[in-house]
Amino acid sequence: MKLNLYEDKKNMNEHVDVYYANMRPVIRQLIDTVNKDRPTLSGRPADEDLDDGEEMILDPAEIYYLDHIERKLFAYTKDGVFRIMNTLASCEEMLWTYGFVRVSKSNLINIYKIRQLKPDLNMKVYASFDNGERICINRSYKKSFNDYLQKMRGIM
Amino acid sequence: MERFKQYIVELCCVYTLVSVLGAIVNIIGGTQTSNANVLVMFLTCAIGTFVLYMHKLFENVSPLVMIIVQYLAACAICAVMLLLIGVFYEPVSPRGWFEYYRSFTIPYIVLAGFYYYRVFSEAKAQNALIREIQQKSLEKHS
User: Which of A104, B33, B53, B72 could be joined to B37 by an S-S link, Cβ 3.0–4.6 Å?
Assistant: First the structure.
């Protein structure tokens, strides 16, 4: 799909025109994205070759957590795992008001998707998600995690 | 250097707390502490603070493993200290070894238990907070 971008600092009427042949899921996602005020992430299915897979627009509300493995960033959703081309730090900055909080060096979790926080007998605390997976909340991020929850309660 | 300064500050706080508690116990029990005991208490505080100060090395292991490893490390360093005292100052009797480790282990277990309780109670409070945020978000968007 051809993409034209026009930057005009004086433009007071920002708009998007979409020329399409069929209303495919990717077009629908584009429309949804424009209609929403929350940021989006784009990613390709993790199990496909980066050049082959069709890029998908991911709604942050659908992401359980972001995982940084071997210099690659993956988003875990109900529909699967997607490779994201952003950095974890940029995602943290972009998504912190949307419920995403850093819980370890390599994980950013969505608090709206947490089913339960559960400590193990070995005292490690895990966040469990609806998809059955769980992420460990690192001790050194415990305080910032708690501060974040307090801040989010204040915002709501 | 910065970490050393921080260690010294923490050691001062720990030693003050332990010596004040020791004085209270002496007043209640009507006992007195010898100069040697004061020095041993200070060395024990220095060892305990040093070992606990190493917690940043255990970021990737579970807290339970960290507590056990730190306890064993503290026991080992204290054993070296008691052996050195035995060689250079005065031999430590078997009863002395027992008393020393007892007075070291009991507070350690109590504090570890408190930490264990805190982990679970904090998780419970955070769960309630998350439920509240999720509920408010649902109400906001419905």
Answer: B33
Measured between beta carbons, the chain A residues lying within 8 angstroms of B56 are 140
In our burial notation (b when 16+ CB lie closer than 10 A, e otherwise), range B93-132 reads eeeeeeebeeebeeebeeebeeebeebeebbeebbebbee
Ranges under pLDDT 70 in chain A = 36-37, 48-53
Q: Write out the CATH class of domain A25-155.
A: mainly beta
B contacts of A112 (beta carbons < 8 Å): 133-134, 137
Q: Do A146 and B122 touch (CB under 8 A)?
A: yes
Distances (CA, A) of B26 to B4, B12, B20, B45, B95: 32, 21, 10, 18, 20
Q: Supply A66's token pair.
A: 């972001």
Task: Kindly state the average pLDDT of the residues B91-98.
Answer: 92
B41 close to B16: Cβ distance less than 8 angstroms: no
The alpha-carbon gap from B100 to the nearest alpha carbon of chain A, in Å, equals 28
How sure is the predictor about B97, in pLDDT bands with cuts at 50, 70 and 90?
Answer: very high
Please tell me whether residue A110 adopts helix, strand or coil conformation. strand
| Phi (first) and psi of residue A129, to 5 degrees | -115, 170
Q: Which of A140, A142, A149 sits opposite B133 (nearest CB)?
A: A149
Integer Cα distance of A16 and A32 in angstroms: 12
**Interatomic CA distance for residues B104 and B13, integer angstroms:** 18
Residue range of the domain that includes B115: 2-141
Determine, for residues A122 and B120 on separate chains, whether the beta-carbon distance falls below 8 Å.
no
Optimal mutation site among A107, A155, A156, interface B, most CBs of chain B within 10 A: A156
pLDDT of residue B56: 75
